[in-house]
């Protein structure tokens, strides 16, 4: 999101009753009425994508309820993918999904920047290990061959949208770690190792539900839908340079498979 702004309701009630209070005898629980009111304000554009909700205390005052009731309403909307609650920062309206094309040349930073957003990357870990049978098959190596294993998390306007594990053949890509740590960019890391251009040789896309670990890494609720992308990139000679397993938050990106 760009320019995170706190939604200011001033003295106006949120969608709901004329004074912002809850209909106590309506037969609907208080937290559900609050969730419905916030959702209505998202749908009618009063709360815009990327905007920050008022604090729990202010919402509790607005609806004349305790903070626990507000917290339950926010959790319900986060589970639906409408809100994102980030510890220490607040609660935000989820941005609209970014169209993310997957083709012969898939470049995260280029795609995000072209859409007018800021791309970011974070190297979470980097270790030298040996290729198991599946990794060796994908990279056309012998099982047990040395490889570099990295974990990188990617951001759009500061919001985490994916995290992935990649394997690079060693010793050819021994320099990847330093560049990834500095820039978070796979493209720059490969370029530093002499691969100025690379192409997507294979992409497999599946889906699953987010676990607790996924939720922590991507700032989303457990049970949200994730896209899982297994990709193989090759250099100009067709030699594999990277085998990747990347998990995307399906609420935040729209994968577009390009022909050719």
UniProtKB/TrEMBL annotation:
Pfam family, one: UTRA
Keyword list, A-Z: DNA-binding, Transcription, Transcription regulation
InterPro entries in UniProt: Bact_HTH_transcr_reg, Chorismate_lyase_/UTRA_dom_sf, CP_lyase_PhnF, Tscrpt_reg_HTH_GntR, UTRA, WH-like_DNA-bd_sf, WH_DNA-bd_sf
Domain named HTH gntR-type: residues: 28-96
Signal peptide: none
Parts forming coiled coils: none
TM region(s), chain numbering: none
Name of this protein: Phosphonates metabolism transcriptional regulator PhnF
Species of provenance: Chelatococcus sambhunathii
């Amino acid at each position: 999101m760009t320019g995170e702004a706190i939604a200011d309701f001033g003295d106006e009630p949120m969608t709901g009753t004329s004074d912002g209070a809850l209909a106590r005898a309506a037969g609907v629980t208080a937290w559900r009425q609050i969730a419905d009111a916030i959702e209505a304000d998202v749908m009618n554009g009063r709360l815009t994508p990327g905007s920050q909700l008022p604090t729990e205390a202010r919402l509790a005052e607005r609806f004349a309820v305790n903070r626990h009731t507000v917290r339950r309403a926010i959790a319900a909307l986060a589970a639906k993918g409408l809100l994102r609650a980030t510890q220490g920062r607040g609660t935000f309206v989820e941005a609209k999904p970014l169209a993310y094309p997957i083709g012969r040349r898939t470049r995260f930073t280029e795609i995000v920047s072209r859409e007018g957003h800021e791309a970011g990357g974070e190297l979470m870990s980097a270790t030298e290990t040996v290729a198991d049978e599946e990794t060796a098959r994908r990279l056309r190596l012998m099982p047990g061959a040395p490889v570099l294993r990295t974990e990188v998390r990617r951001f759009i306007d500061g919001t985490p949208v994916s995290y992935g594990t990649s394997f690079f053949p060693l010793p050819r890509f021994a320099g990847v770690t330093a560049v990834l740590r500095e820039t978070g960019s796979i493209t720059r890391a490969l370029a530093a190792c002499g691969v100025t251009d690379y192409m997507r040789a294979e992409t497999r896309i599946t889906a699953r539900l987010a676990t607790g670990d996924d939720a922590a890494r991507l700032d989303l609720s457990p049970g949200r839908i994730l896209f899982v992308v297994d990709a193989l990139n090759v250099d100009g000679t067709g030699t594999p340079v990277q085998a990747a397993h990347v998990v995307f938050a399906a609420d935040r990106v729209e994968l577009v498979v390009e022909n050719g």
